């Protein structure tokens, strides 16, 4: 009997000889090995959470197949140069035809990664076995104290994280700062939760959602001015100069910003590939109204969209504030 979904096979997909080598990919994806912890809250039950995201893509068919086959999303709709994918009828990702676009350089502002949150650790285990059997290329693994994460890129280089949160009562907070480190992932303990003798992943589980969005920006103070002071998200990792981690309702982070490769970056080119927009799902209409007022008071343009409003961050990324729970 051939068992391909082993730690060795998964490390091979990440191009690494050991877990410590694979962790280097996660360090690059999360920016260092600081040690900090988390606290109360759940990603999609907070007053504000991530709703969905949209990518401008060169090859929509190829990208649709990847998110369907590698991640397990379902194709919900396809029309007018767009593919909408999601879980249980809930849209999570829109792929938009941009056949003449240029690739967005990694030194520019834009998407660092979209993080898909598995409902349970066992779901992450089953997906890892699926990745091994279907030879999905991986780039890193890490234990972040509050969560366990796997990193990879889609076929057009957009960063992805597939992760499972630890129970919120095991997160650690001190003076409003959550402990989030980058440590070696106990892959054997995760794989012990499922069989490795066959692929049992039958598509994304019903509770899969986007847990957080991580962005490249040109300047952390300007980014915090928009996402923290205008949109009302709260910092969970202090006043770092190279990055910011922001959330609603005590989650470890819904939005992250970094300048690791993009310090000083200016406005994004709307003709390039990459993130077109992402949405923040706001549970109460009054919060949308308050956020809209703060944006307008800061001199930022607010455009009405279905169920909410849209604004541009300082680098031209479109952020939608939508009323209602997903």
UniProtKB/TrEMBL annotation:
The record, for InterPro entries, names: Glyas_Bleomycin-R_OHBP_Dase, Glyas_Fos-R_dOase_dom, TAT_signal, VOC_core
Do you know which SUPFAM superfamilies this protein is assigned to?
A: Glyoxalase/Bleomycin resistance protein/Dihydroxybiphenyl dioxygenase
Keywords on record: Oxidoreductase, Signal
EC number(s): the record gives 1.13.11.2
EC top class, in one word?
A: oxidoreductase
Span of domain VOC: 49-165, 209-326
**PROSITE patterns per UniProt:** TAT (PS51318), VOC (PS51819)
The region annotated as signal peptide is: 1-24
Transmembrane: is it a keyword of this entry?
Answer: no
Which molecular-function annotations from GO does this UniProt entry contain? catechol 2,3-dioxygenase activity
- A Pfam family found in this protein is Glyoxalase
Keyword Oxidoreductase carried by entry: yes
From the Swiss-Prot or TrEMBL record, give the protein name: Catechol 2,3-dioxygenase
Tell me what organism the protein belongs to: Pseudochelatococcus lubricantis
Q: What is the lineage of its organism?
A: Bacteria, Pseudomonadati, Pseudomonadota, Alphaproteobacteria, Hyphomicrobiales
């Amino acid at each position: 009997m051939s068992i391909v979904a082993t730690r060795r096979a998964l490390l091979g997909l990440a191009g690494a000889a050991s877990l410590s080598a694979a962790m280097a990919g996660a360090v690059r994806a999360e920016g260092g090995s600081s040690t900090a912890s988390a606290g109360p809250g759940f990603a999609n039950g907070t007053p504000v959470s991530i709703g969905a995201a949209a990518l401008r893509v060169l090859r929509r068919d190829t990208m649709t197949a990847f998110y369907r086959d590698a991640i397990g999303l379902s194709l919900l709709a396809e029309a007018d140069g767009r593919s909408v994918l999601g879980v249980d009828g809930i849209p999570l990702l829109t792929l938009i035809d941009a056949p003449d676009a240029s690739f967005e350089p990694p030194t520019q502002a834009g998407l660092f990664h979209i993080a898909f949150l598995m409902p349970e650790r066992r779901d992450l285990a089953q997906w890892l076995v699926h990745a091994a059997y279907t030879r999905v290329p991986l780039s890193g693994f890490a234990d972040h104290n509050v969560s366990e994460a796997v990193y990879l890129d889609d076929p057009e280089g957009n960063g992805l994280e597939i992760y499972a949160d630890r129970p919120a009562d095991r997160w650690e907070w001190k003076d409003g700062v959550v402990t989030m480190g980058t440590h070696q992932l106990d892959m054997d303990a995760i794989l012990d939760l499922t069989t490795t003798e066959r692929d049992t992943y039958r598509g994304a589980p019903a509770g899969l959602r986007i847990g957080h969005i991580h962005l490249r920006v040109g300047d952390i103070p300007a980014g915090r001015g928009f996402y923290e002071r205008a949109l009302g998200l709260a910092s969970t990792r202090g006043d770092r100069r190279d990055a910011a981690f922001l959330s609603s309702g005590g989650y470890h982070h819904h939005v992250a910003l970094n300048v690791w490769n993009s310090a000083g970056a200016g406005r994004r080119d709307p003709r390039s590939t990459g993130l077109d927009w992402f949405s923040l799902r706001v549970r109460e209409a009054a919060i949308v109204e308050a956020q809209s007022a703060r944006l307008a008071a800061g001199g930022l343009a607010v455009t009405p969209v279905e169920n909410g409003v849209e604004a541009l961050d300082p680098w031209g990324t479109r952020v939608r504030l939508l009323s209602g729970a997903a």
